Each structure stands twice: as C-alpha cells, then as structure tokens.
Amino acid sequence: MNEKFYVTDCEGPLSINDNAYEISDYFIPEGGEFFSILSNYDDMLVEKNIEGYLAGSTLKLVLPFFKAYDLTENDLIQFSEDNISMVNGAYKMISYVQDIMPFYIVSTSYNQYIKALCDKTGFIYENTYSTQLELDKYELNNDEKESLLNIRENILFDYGFDNIHHLFTNVISKMKINSLIDSVTPVGGIGKRDAIFDIIEKHNYEPYNLMYSGDSITDCEALEYAKENNGISISFNGNIHSIKSASISITSTNNLILATIADIFNNKSTEGVYDFISQYNDNPLETIIKYSKNDEITQELLLNKASIDIITEDNVEKLNNKNKITRNKVRGQKIGNLG
Fold first, then answer.
1. Does residue 217 sit within a domain?
2. In a shared domain, residues 243 and 330
C-alpha cells in the first residue's frame, strides 16, 4: 500500500504543554522543580542505555507522589481539560492534515490529557497512542504516604543521581505503592517506535511513507526509524536529542509549516519535501506561495517565517543553540529545558 501517513508527538509539535510537569507544579509543593529533577534523573538513565528502560519514565516515577498528595484521576482530567494550550496554528493544522492523509498522535503523555486535547481540537482519539494510567486503582497507606512526603524533601535537598537512584531502587521499590509504578508503560523511546510498528501492521503502510515530527528524547527512536527508512523525520523546535536523531530541523512559533510539508510529502514523497526545502531556503516567500494550497495557511506562513534546515553532523550544535531560543519562547524556559 502506497498511502502516506503522518505520526507526531503531541507536546511540542502540537501543544505547548508538558502536562505531567504542570500537574506536578500545581498539586505538589515545589512540584515543578521536583518533576524537573526526576526528569533529569530519567534522562541520565536513558543515556546509560539500560536494557528495557523507556524514555519518558518520569511519568512513572512521579506517580507515588501524586498519590501522596491525594490526586485522583478526576483531578488529572479536570486539570487537563482546563489547561490545554496549543502551538499557534495547531487547530488549523490538525484539521487540514486530517482531511488530506491518515494522521496519528504517539505521545508519552497520560491518556487523560490526550483525551482532553482530542475533545478540544477535534483530533481523532482512536488515532492516538499514549501512556495509560489508572491512578485510582492503587491505594496508599499512611506509613508509605509519610515516607513519600519525606522522600520528596530529601530529593529536593539532594538531587544527585546516586541519592535518587538509591531512593527509588532501595526504598520506593519495596513499598506496596510501587505496584503503581510497575503498572505503567510509558509510550516513549522504543515505545513510540513500537506504536509506529503497530500502526504500520494494522493499516499495511510502508515505512518509507512515514512522516514523523517530535522534539525530545522520547522521540529519538521514532525519528531515527523514519530517517533510516527514507521517510520524513522532523525535529520541531527540538532539543539536542531530537536534532541528533532527525534529518530535518524546523524552528517556528507556528506549526502550520508542518501541514504544508505533510501535503507536499503526501503528493510528492520524500524527494519533493527536500526540493521544497532547497527552494524555500533560496526564496521563502515565493516558495510558500508556490507550494501552499490553502490561502489561510499561506497567509499565516508568510507572517510567521519558519527556519528549515537539513541536519548534518557539522550543524547539530548550531541548530540546538538556535532552537533553544524559539523552544523556550514557545513553551517557556522551564518546560523547554526538560529532556
């Protein structure tokens, strides 16, 4: 089957949220800082290449602390519904891409957030993969609750790798509430790649017909898979991890450029996208007018000029420095600095 299909991460290319960070920041004292520490610990574990360890496991590690501060699934749902923030252009981008080709979200985010986002934007929820969480199924006793409250303070005081690793592997792992951590499989890293495998198998797609966009360490395997199979692999306002894994880097405050590239890919395949990028970098205004088929999108792209680069070994650091500025502008520095 020669049908093109587009798979994207959610937080970054579509929304400016980091839902798990924001939940932590709202419900847990000093929760934003606490989540960032756990995220850094998670990144270090990923970089150690521990077999079976999934990028994005911060979303597992923080769960006992959600229970310690009495969060429920309803809290997650209500907070998510009330705090959806999209990248400029995203509503139009979603509508446009869904009209022209199969479109999927593969996200490390909790399913409660993805459902809320789909309800608000019109994205087809059945075309999404996310981290499944059943928070209410697990009880936390008073002794473990007290211990977790103390552990939170301990980690904020000593956020070194050795201390955090000791607390999770030798203390929390022995608690009954650790079953909550074990129950969750984050859709990150190889989990995102496996979701793409599932999409391909279910719909009989070819790997070279894949376009993927992501922005973080949880997208590396998916970006590499698209690149290795001669599909389109885009780091959108991405950090250093995603830039190293992708073939194209896009920096923009508006994501409608992704709709235009999806349209080009859908009609002219990978070679057509690279032709577009070459022409765009010579004359962006004329190229947008030539390639964009939608007047509203054309107007937005002319007003919000994206930076599009082919990634090479020599320009990774330069692109990372450029992306940081826009990434932090779009998502805020605290979220932008997360892995």
1. yes
2. yes
Domain membership flag for residue 103: no
Q: Quick one: 167 and 221 in the same domain? A: no
Residue listed under structure tokens 């920041």:
25
Cβ-Cβ contacts under 8 Å for 11 (sequence gap 6 or more): 17, 18, 19, 107, 108, 109, 215
- The range of the structural domain enclosing residue 162 comes to 19-87+111-183
Q: Which pTM does this prediction carry?
A: 0.93
Give the total number of structural domains in the chain.
2
Does some domain include residue 94?
A: no
Does one domain contain both 153 and 196? no
Backbone angles phi, psi at 110, to 5 degrees: -60, 145
Residue pLDDT, tens place only, 180-235? 999 999 999 899 999 999 999 999 999 999 999 999 999 999 999 999 999 999 99
Cα–Cα nearest to 223, from 198, 195, 243: 243
Cβ atoms of residues 7 and 211 within 8 Å: yes
The verdict on 284 and 316 lying in the same domain is yes
In a domain? residue 80: yes
Q: How far from the centroid of its chain's Cα atoms is residue 218's Cα?
A: 7
Same structural domain, 202 and 176: no
Q: Are residues 264 and 306 in the same domain?
A: yes
Q: Tell me the pLDDT tens digit for each residue of 257-305.
A: 999 999 999 999 999 999 999 999 999 999 999 999 999 999 999 999 9
Same domain, 193 and 179: no
Report how far residue 237's alpha carbon sits from residue 129's, in angstroms, rounded to the nearest whole number. Answer: 22
* Cβ 92 vs Cβ 259: under 8 Å: yes
